[in-house]
Amino acid sequence: MKENKIDGSEQILQVRELLFGEAQRQFEARLDALKNENENLRKLLKETEDKLLNINQSMQAALKNERESDNKKFSELLANLDKNLSQRIKNLEENKVDRSQIGHAFLEWGNKIQQIVGR
What is the pTM of this model? Predict the structure, then answer.
């Protein structure tokens, strides 16, 4: 009896192989191909994520350097502007003193002329 069961099971397997064997092999081959494609896509995704992360880090570093450079240039510009304004104010103050002295000299000259004419 047991032998008949084994023979029956083998017959069922043989019938199944005849009916579905090629389709099952094609299905398994397609499944393996999809698994490989899935794995390749995962690797590609990981590589792309790594590249994007590197690009992001590079852009952040470049932006930081650009900001630092801009801040330095702005600080230098402000320092130069302050220096120029200070120099101009100093020149104006010197000119003011000169004008005051010139004005005083004209007043003295005018007084002397009046004294001479008035005699």
Answer: 0.50
